[in-house]
């Protein structure tokens, strides 16, 4: 029987306590409560991420959260959730396969991320426009500008730059497309290319002093924000490394672990060996500027923490991380809920402590300094945290 969660029922779930126990005692799993809360806050999926009513945008943040919402709908058998996600893609992918507001010639890796939901939509509906859109996105990837070592540029307007964020935007899509559509030598070449993206960015962003990976690097050494010797940005930003950890786990789920992908497994394990050193001792959570724990002005940031917890839970379940980390991953999930998830008077729940946005260069001349990262707005319910929190909650709900 399909379950339904209506606003009246949700409103009855209000509780005064903000602990993880209260979420479970409410009678609905945290993933279900968060999705239902988001739908109440954003009755139209096109309005996610603050997009004004009447507008539509092909947007990686929207696509990320809707993929998580659809996953929750499928796991719990709640048709309203999957239908909500589908409404966005049904609106933005036109009958001829064109995607509104998308332009291939921008060569923006961010624009590949929302395409991931189209694989399942095409499987379920057989609607050829979704396959046409997928092929268009793959064509962008095939023509994406690269550095000499094969690393994809993050965007056409950011020449020679690789950002850790970009690994999540492109590689899970690339891997799923390859598994579904390529074979033989063509598939093997794609796998080698995918793995190379992870290896190249690791080599260029690694900071031996901390063991962390910096937000980005500029292969040309020309950008004002980079070190002129290494090309690296100034800091390891929490969410950038969160994107990177998620990218490894979600790419490996398609490619599997073998000799070809073993370097990715090694990078993932290194990340989780180093991360505890930079966590807040009291909460177990991580800071906005990851390599500056406890520094005045720095703060515990939820989107990065959600990504780290989710990737850890999934990495353990799929065997990419040691099984003995499973208990710690579950403990960190509970810590995350205690730290960042709050009950609202109307019975919804919210994710607090989200960095709204951060980047490098661009029109805003973003410097990548400590002062820059802590100056960006802190908001609630950012898609980039809500999606990973839903996924982490689904991991917790899976049978041990």
UniProtKB/TrEMBL annotation:
It comes from the Bacteria. The keyword Nucleotide-binding does not apply. It holds the Pfam family Glyco_hydro_88. One of its GO terms (biological process) is carbohydrate metabolic process. It comes from Alistipes shahii WAL 8301. This is Predicted unsaturated glucuronyl hydrolase involved in regulation of bacterial surface properties, and related proteins. PROSITE patterns: PROKAR_LIPOPROTEIN. Residues 1-24 form the signal peptide. SUPFAM superfamilies: Six-hairpin glycosidases (SSF48208).
């Amino acid at each position: 029987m399909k379950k339904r969660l209506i606003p009246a029922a949700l409103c009855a779930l209000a509780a005064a306590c903000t602990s993880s126990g209260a979420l479970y005692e409410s009678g609905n799993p945290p993933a279900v409560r968060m999705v239902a809360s988001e739908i109440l806050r954003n009755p139209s999926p096109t309005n996610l991420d603050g997009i004004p009513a009447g507008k539509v945008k092909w947007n990686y943040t929207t696509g990320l959260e809707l993929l998580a919402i659809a996953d929750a709908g499928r796991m719990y058998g709640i048709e309203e959730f999957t239908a909500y996600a589908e409404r966005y893609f049904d609106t933005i992918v036109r009958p001829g396969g064109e995607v509104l507001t998308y332009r291939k010639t921008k060569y923006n890796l961010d624009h590949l991320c929302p395409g991931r939901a189209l694989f399942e939509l095409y499987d379920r509906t057989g609607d050829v426009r979704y396959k046409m859109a997928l092929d268009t996105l793959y064509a962008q990837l095939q023509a994406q500008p690269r550095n000499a070592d094969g690393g994809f540029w993050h965007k056409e307007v950011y020449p020679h730059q690789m950002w850790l964020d970009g690994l999540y935007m492109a590689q899970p899509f690339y891997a799923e497309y390859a598994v579904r559509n390529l074979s033989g030598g063509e598939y093997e070449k794609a796998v080698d290319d995918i793995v190379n993206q992870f290896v190249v960015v690791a080599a260029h962003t690694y900071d031996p002093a901390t063991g962390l990976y910096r937000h980005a690097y500029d292969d040309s050494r020309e950008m004002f924000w980079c070190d002129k010797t290494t090309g690296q940005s100034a800091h390891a930003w929490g969410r950038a490394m969160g994107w990177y950890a998620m990218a490894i786990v979600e790419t490996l789920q398609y490619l599997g672990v073998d000799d070809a992908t073993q370097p990715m497994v090694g990078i993932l394990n290194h990340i989780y060996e180093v991360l505890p050193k930079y966590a807040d001792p009291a909460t177990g959570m991580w800071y906005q500027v990851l390599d500056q724990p406890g520094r005045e002005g720095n703060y515990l940031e939820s989107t990065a923490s959600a990504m780290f917890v989710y990737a850890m839970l999934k990495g353990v379940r799929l065997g990419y991380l040691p099984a003995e980390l499973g208990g710690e991953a579950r403990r960190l999930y509970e810590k995350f809920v205690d730290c960042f998830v709050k009950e609202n008077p109307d019975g919804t729940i919210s994710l607090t402590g989200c960095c709204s946005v951060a980047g490098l260069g661009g029109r805003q001349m973003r410097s990548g300094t400590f002062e820059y990262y802590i100056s960006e707005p802190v908001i609630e319910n950012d898609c980039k945290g809500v999606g990973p929190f839903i996924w982490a909650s689904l991991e917790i709900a899976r049978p041990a």
